[in-house]
Amino acid sequence: MDLNLLLDGFQTALTPTNLLFAVLGVMLGTAVGVLPGIGPAMTVALLLPVTYNVEPSSAIIMFAGIYYGGMYGGSTTSILLNTPGESSSVVTAIEGNKMAKAGRAAQALATAAIGSFVAGTIGTILLVLLAPSVADVVVKLGAPSYFAIMLLALFAVTAVLGTSKLRGFIALFLGLTIGLIGTSTGKARLTFGEPLLADGIDIVVVAVAIFAIGEALWVAAHLRRKPLEIIPVGRPWMDRQDWGRSWKPWLRGTALGFPFGALPAGGAEVPTFLSYITERKLSKHPEEFGKGAIEGVAGPEAANNASAAGTLVPLLAIGLPTTATAAVILLAMQSYGIQPGPQLMDNEPELVWGLLASLFVANTLLLVLNLPLAPVWARLLQTPRPYLYAGILFFASLGAYSVNFQAFDLALLLAFGLLGLAMRRFGLPVLPLIIGVILGPRLEAQLTEALAISGGKISTLWGEPVAVVVYVVIAVLIVGLFVNFVRNARQGAATAENKERIDA
Amino acid sequence: MSIVVAYSPDVFGRAALDHGVAEAELRRTRLVVVNATRGDSLVDSHYAHEDEMQQVLAQLESAGVEVKVRRDVVPDIAEAVLDVAREEGATLVVVGVRHRTPVGKMLLGSVAQRVILDAGCPVLAVKPAAAHG
Question: ipTM surpassing 0.85, yes or no?
Answer without folding.
Answer: no
